[in-house]
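[job 0412] stage=fold_complex status=start
inputs:
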Amino acid sequence: MKITAEFHGVLAEWVGTRSASFELPAGATYSDLMEEIGRRYRRNMPDQLWDTERNLFNKVQAHGKDRTLASADTPLLEGEEIQFLLMIAGG
Amino acid sequence: MNGYHGRFLEIDLNNQTTRDLPLSEDFCKSYIGGATMAAALVYDRIKSDTDPLSPENPIVMACGPFTGSPIPMVSRYAIGGVSPLTGFWGEATSGGTFPFRLKGTGWDGIIITGKAEKPVYLYLADGQAEIRDAASLWGKDSYQTQKIIKDGADASNISVACIGPAGEKLINYACIMNDKGRAAGRCGMGALMGSKNLKAVAAAGNRQPKYADAAKISELARQAVKDINGNLISVGFREYGTLMYMDMGMTLGDTPAKYFTKSVFPVGEVTGQALRQKYSVASYACRGCPIGCGRDLRGFKPGLDVDGPEYETTVAFGPLCMNTDFDSIIEANHLCNVYGIDTISAGVSVAYAFYLYEQGILTKDQVGFELKWGDGKAILKLVERIVNQEGIGILLSKGTLAMARELNREEGEAAQVKGLEVPMHDGRAFHGLAVSYATGPRGACHLKGAYYDVDLGGMVLEYMILPSDRLVSEGKGEPAAKYQSFKDLFDALTLCKFAPYQVPQLCEMLNGLTGWQYDPEQLLAAGDRSINIKRAVSNKLGLRRDHDALPRICLDALKEGTTANIQPDMEVMLKEYYQYRGWDLETGKPTREKLIELGLKHVADEMYP
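[job 0412] stage=fold_complex status=done
writing structure:
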């Protein structure tokens, strides 16, 4: 299945791209996507952005079509676009 | 007394005298310091009819027990008095080096009353105070003033807080500048200084009080640096400054555009990333801060370095005016800093002028030129007219509430609470923020009511302040009140709002400095007391229940974006908020019982004779 990830704002700078496509096996979960994102981009990110225990972004929300991906084992949908938003406010 | 010098300096400019005002330990323990201590001192010194610009209105500059200590992110001070902009309690805070030096003089703060016959400035150095002639400084801008005083000073460890020409001209939202571009921006405290013919306060010294457990404080400070550096927020602020939030704010509908009538606007050209790409950016930090969120723009014009605009300023002169011309935003920021006016109130007043022009209320004849949304040059012309008090600038310099009244407009069109312009976060995107704005002790204040921090995951478990659906009103009143109290404490302890300290950590720090035994519950009670003493100042000056309101322009449902068709339910949240606070729903005053519970019996006796 094809999944597109969109990284917004400063997150795009830290990941190193605004958009990326992933080819994942059928039935892949949010956790599988994060595994791929980590493998591809983690070496460029600030250490503080990655939660090494959970293998997820720190302080980032992932939104699929009409839903928030709150749990690592949430199955992804074919062709889904996942929006990644940094949950840091201030200023 | 540990953590304090135990004295303020009291200055009477009428007869040019100074004297020490001793502080009791009970007083310090109740009001802690900073803006809260300032409010307690102001409460005792004003009457119901004190005119903000009268000699009787005191101006208090106060440090806290954290100021100057080894703990990072604590070089802050607060200024308090009756606000020339709102007529109620006014406060402003700033960082830089000045707070460290002010505490280093050997006083915990200063109280200034009266009015000098001629311009003066205060020179405080190592326990000595002088009132010096400032005739040659009058008319100088804020950067020139700081430089002249520093260059002519005997001491090298000196820092200066001053007003620019705007404060001299008593512009309602004149601010106080220190360490070049650091601003105590809000509430017009610069006009209060100007009304006293007080151009500047220069502070020199390294005096620090004893700490109850110095070894513990060193250990806590080391741990705090680790915590700060390990925090993702620190990385963001270090790399992009407060502008880091721009795209995120717009995505959430939290960044207002077109004078609060839109929340969708292409911000790509005015982000922190864009600033770094387009300009030569260096960062600077307040003393003792390992982050350094301040921006310096090198060579903005040939031979001219300027301060980089913060998020608030960039939105106020950017999206709020539909403007994407970064040069004009930076220049407007520079003008505000040089002349000494608050960029938030100025930006909102300028945006209101564009709005009124589009409505046909202001005309080309009145303004002197056309106002088309997004015209950076027109924005600059308006700012110039404000600071020079020319033409339409005179009206805009009074703030949005006065503008609406003078133009016979509905007051709900003025983007302000209690007369203080609404900052660059939108209560429609975070309902907890909406109730915080409406009830803020100085008016609409994003610093006390940063509820977006909570709903984006920044919980305070000790007080059960937990993230929830940001677009739901019910249940927000109580946690918003508690969060307001918690954040208000930062300006008592004198901490940067970005300091990521947890409640137990704050208790340990305060206790290590002072030797007290504050626990989380007592700390929250101190925050509640702080909100209530400020409320009592404003109640004394005529504040009522109906002043706790967001203006219509900031509540009308928007048509697009993530907050389309959404309106906070203010009545529900205010009721919950009042219930937590123990405030009377009819009068807007704290009940007698609540005041006594918080140790404010003297206030209760005066409020309920």
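[job 0412] summary: The first strand of chain A starts at residue 2 and ends at 7.
[job 0412] exit 0
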